Structures are given as structure tokens and as C-alpha cells.
Protein 1
Amino acid sequence: MGKRGQAQVFWHSLISAPPSSEKEVKAKRARLEVSMTFGFRKNGFARTAVPFLCGAASFFLVWILDLALEPKSFLSLVLVEAGLFALACVVACAFTSGQPFRTAGLGVAGVFAAVIAEIIIHPTIEGGYERNLFPLEIAFHMLVASPSFLLIAVAWRVCFGPDTKRLKQGQNGSGSS
């Protein structure tokens, strides 16, 4: 029986038979709370969406700062961009515990999607000029975002250690289950 079939049997057992004692009611409530808590956090929407959105939001913040402040030098823009990407990775790692490298990868993917969106949106805002060097722009932002996210992921892993849930289950990355 697959996971879906097991889940259906589990939910059916929670709903179908009325409990005969107070003890059974408490046991069913406890099982329901455990399934609700761990079912959504294990492979939930937040583990994927939060890092992606943090990466995209950090790039859009860089874009807004670039338009509003018009930085004096290229180096200051790069440093601000790297700092915002690092801050986005810290926020994403704080919200999604356990896998900082996965979080960093999703954050960089969010930056990539935001760069593509900015390339599409920017000409309509600024007056319709073409951007024929957009592949270099994508490469530049990825070269700034990747090390920023990766360094924070490494620091997060060093400071907070590996995912203890996976180690307790015996899945420490060596291929054993």
C-alpha cells in the first residue's frame, strides 16, 4: 500500500468509528495533532517557498535601491547586493530549519527568477529600450548571489550542525536508510 493509501486508512480510522472511552478520544486527538504537525512541516510549502521568495525579494530590493539611490560606484552596488543576498539566506535558513544547502540553492533559484522577471519588466518601466546584454547581467547576478548564499549556508551548517532528525533516522547521507 502506498503512502496515499496509508494516509486514507489513517484518516478513515480517525473519522469512522466513534471512540468508546475518554482514553481513545485522547489517543485519536494526539494522533491527529502529530499527523497535522509533522505532515505539513516535513515536506511542506514553506521549505520550498520561503527560500525562493527570500532570494527573489532580496533581488527586487537591490533593484529598487539601484533605481532610487543611484550608487556612486559599481563596487558599492556589488557589496550592497552581496549583503542583501546574505541577509536573505540568513532569514531563509531561520525559517526553514535543517537543510541550509537546499535553502541556499532555492534562494539562488529565486534570485535567478527575479533577474529574469526584472529583465522582462524593466523596459516597460524605463521607456522601452532593449537589453541585448541580458545574459551577462544574469551571469553577474548569479556570480554575486551564489557565493553569498553558499557562504551563509556553510556558516549556518557549522554553527548549528547537521540536521539531527535525519541522523536519528539513520539517513546521514551515506546511502543507508
Note: The helical segments are 3-15, 22-42, 45-69, 74-95, 100-126, 134-160, 164-169.
Protein 2
Amino acid sequence: MAIVKGVNCGFVSAPPSGDPGGTDTTVDNTSCAFKDVSPSDAVKVTEIGFWCDNATEESNLEVGIYDHHVGDDNPEDVVGWDKTNAKGTSGGEWKRVTGLDIAISGNTIYWIATQIDYTVTRTKGNRTTDGGERYDVITTESTLLDPWGASSAQYGEIASIYAVYETAGGGGPGALDFERKTRGVGRGVMRGAA
């Protein structure tokens, strides 16, 4: 397999499955963010996850969506996040945080982010070189920050980080109303419809 935007990376309509087959990269003790443009009909994110290549010790997994800072092409403010989740110890699988309700707008640049606490056995995700894409990290980082701040490194790469989105029709009548009520809120937690 390969890491493909819209299939097992970036905004996807359904959770990915199978090994994406990219190059191993350390993702624990690190905040990682992948830039993508939301589909035109997307109104919320319901799940965020990443590919974990290897079995490692239990640690906390944080996930979030950031808006985009045009000036330095970095993540900026948190749109929504979930900061307390058990990563699990097994490898060769997608780690998923479900039940999210993060309002987004269609056709908008966002950053899909993860942060995994330090594991003695370094936790590995996948990435592949692609000069047209953008993947940022903050190394030696124990939590997602708001705002993101300065990245430790910026890569022209595609990463095995995804966000499942819903449309107004798929999310039911409350989804679009929730998006309208929360549009413009720059940061903080958006869990549970209004």
C-alpha cells in the first residue's frame, strides 16, 4: 500500500485500514501535524488517528485540529481537540480517537495533529517524501499547545495522520447548526453538539 491523501491520510470520508507502507518516523514525545484542505461539504470531524508501526508501552494520545497561519505556513490556533486517550500497546494498527465533534468549514486549510507521550520503545508512525505536501513537528513535546508556536522541523512529506469528516447531510440536521454557532471560535474544545 501507499500513503494517499483522502484514503489513509488527511481528510477522509471513512477510517483507513491496512499498513500504509511509508517510512518509519518517531512520533512519541512529539507533536505532529499534517496540512490538508477540507472537502467543500465538510462540517465536522468525528475521528482522528495515526498509523502505529510497532508495539510500545502505554502512553497518552492527544489529537486535534488547528487552523492555518499563512505567514509561516504553520498550524496556528486549536479549532478542537481531545487531550486524554489511551494509545494502547499493540503495533501494526491504526490508533483512533472516535466520538469527536469538531466543527470545521469546507474548502479550508487545516492541520490534523497528534501528540503521543514518551515511550521507552520509540513509537513509530509512517511518512513519505512529497514536495507538494507539508508535515510539521515539535520535538520533545509533552502536550499539544494552543497556539501551536514554532515548529522544530517542517517537511515536504505526506504523513499517516487522518481525520474522518462528516457532511451536513451525513451528520444530521444538528451538524450544520452546530458549525454555524461555533464558526469563528479560534480555539478550545468543541465536543458535543450545541
Note: The radius of gyration is 15 Å.
Protein 3
Amino acid sequence: MSVICWDGKSLSVDSRVTDDTGRMATRTKGFVLQDGSLFAGIGTILLVERMRGAVQGLRQSVDLTGMNQEDIDSTLCVWIKPEAFYLYYPFGDLYSIGKPEDVQEAFGTGAKYAVGAMLMGADSYRAVEIAIECCATCGPPIKTFVLGQGDPIEIA
């Protein structure tokens, strides 16, 4: 339940998440990492946060303790570095799908709306805004990140 969207230049995320009790909540799921790369995820926020810790070197691997198979199967993160756009899965699988500037993609329950918006010329922010309008499981506020520019822009 959520949407994350990359338009080749910026990453925008909504703030609707599944918390550790399985309930809908509002939390940040997009981050600027210490090296300036961008990281965001869909799925259970606890698992997204554990995956972020693993890529930052805080853990050897992703701690799956207490996670059920449905949580694991529904979680996916994107890790955007200057040299590559990566898909990152809970078991530690990391796949490069191209250079960031060559990728336009969205993930989550609102992805089809976001992709459609981008096909019509929307940037990542507007695409997430449209996904929120069309998908009940997506919600504000929206945060937008630009690779190499530090703190996100937050628009309610």
C-alpha cells in the first residue's frame, strides 16, 4: 500500500505504509543515505527500515525475524546511486536495472497510476499526486528527492 516513483531525475514517495502491527499508518519511507544515494521502499515499513540498515552497513544482512512470508514477498526497495538504479529484495538480492537517468518506473499499489501520469508527461511528484488521487491505499504527504541534492522537498 503505497507508491514510489522515479522519473529519471527525481524520486517521489507518498507516506502511506503498513506498520509493524499490520495497520495503515503515515510514515517516511524515502531516505537520503549517508553517501548521498537515495533509498525508498514499499511493503512493511519495519522491513524497509531493516533493509535500509543493511545497505548502510549497519547490519550484515536483512533481519527477517518476526516477518511473515506475505510481508517479505510484498516488500521491495529501490536504491539509487549515481552509477545505477537498483532493485533490492529482503533476502539480499540486488539487481541493477540501468543508469538512473535511463529509468522511469513506479512501484506499489499506486504504480499503474503513476506510470500512466509519467507517460503523459508528469514528473515524479505529479505522478505520485495522481496516484494518491486514484488509489485509496496511497496518501500524503509527498516527499521528493533529487540525487545528490541532500534533504527532500516535502509538499503536503
Note: The chain has one domain: 3-155.
